[in-house]
Amino acid sequence: MQKLIQGLHKFQSEVFPSREGLFTSLAKGQRPETLFITCSDSRINPNLLTQTEPGELFILRNAGNLVPAYAPTSSGEAATIEFAVQHLGVRQIVVCGHTQCGAMKALLTPEALKDSPAVATWLQHAEATRRHVRDNYQHLSGDALATVLVEENVLSQLESLRTHPAVRARLARGEVSLHGWVYKIETGQVFQFNPAGGQFEAIDRGSPTESVVLPLRAVVGI
Ligand SMILES: [Zn+2]
Predict the structure, then answer these.
(1) Distance 36 CA to ligand 1 centre (A)
(2) What is the Å distance from ligand 1's center to 149 Cα?
(3) Is residue 53 part of a domain?
(4) Residue 205, pLDDT score
(5) Which of 56, 120, 150, 220 could form an SS bridge with 128, CB 3.0 to 4.6 Å?
(6) For 149-198, what is each residue's pLDDT tens digit?
(7) Protein residues near ligand 1, an ion, with CB under 5 A
(8) What is the pLDDT at residue 72?
(9) Is residue 217 part of a domain?
(10) How far apart are the first and last CA of the chain?
(11) 136 shares a domain with 52
(12) 6 and 91: one domain?
């Protein structure tokens, strides 16, 4: 706790005064252009990764960067997505998975969760991912299997986003775009799904920055 308190002191005595203009303007409201959905993993820092400032990313985090399919019984995720799209008017939604994801590893070893019922129940939102990988990537194992699982999970969550009425309506009007990313912790690289090639490709200086339209795969069943 001491480390956090010391950090607060430094923020208030050094960082805030040096950026007072930014924080004063943010006190009047927020207008983020991006809803950034990622894992709760402590190794991911969305603002550091994208070099964005406070006020630029509306962030939704949970174990496994999962998006429960829309249901009449709401969830924190559904409310956050609806608010971001409908009220904040975000123009893009990024689902960012990552390598070494504990939630994804747990998907492959469900027996390890027998004493963690809340986690096991939550990961049912990734059941479509698990089945898809099990049925289509039987030839893979180890790191290759883990990578595919992370990538397929991102794609499944993008499909799940389409079940949310607010997202669906704005997608139809071209007012929002969806992006699938995987952050490689080991190298700092980010890979983006390219629908044209049907695979994840490294984002580098030469990568196009325009929106891409993701093809619909089979609707995710939760
Ligand atoms: Zn994770």
Answers:
(1) 14
(2) 12
(3) yes
(4) 74
(5) 220
(6) 999 999 999 999 999 999 999 999 999 999 999 999 999 999 999 988 89
(7) 39, 41, 101, 103
(8) 82
(9) no
(10) 39
(11) yes
(12) no
Task: Give residue 193 CA to ligand 1 midpoint distance, Å.
Answer: 18
The Cα 177–Cα 154 span in angstroms is 15
Q: Buried b vs exposed e over 150-175: b needs ≥16 C-beta within 10 Å? A: bbbbbbbbbbbbbbbebbeebbeeee
Ligand 1 centroid–CA 28 distance in Å is 33
The secondary structure element, H or E, covering residue 62 is: strand 57-62
Output the pTM of the full model: 0.91
Q: What is the Å distance from ligand 1's center to 45 Cα?
A: 12
| Domain of 1, in residue numbers | 1-30
118 lies in the same domain as 195: yes
Residue 216 domain-assigned? no
115/164 same-domain check: yes
Cα 57–chain centre separation: 12
Whether 36 and 21 map to the same domain: the answer is no
The total number of structural domains that make up the chain = 2
pLDDT at position 213 is 44
pLDDT below 50 — which residues of the chain?
211-222
Output the CA 95–ligand 1 centroid distance in Å: 12
| Structural domain includes residue 171 | yes
Same domain, yes or no: 20 and 119: no
C-alpha 136 to ligand 1 mean position (Å): 22
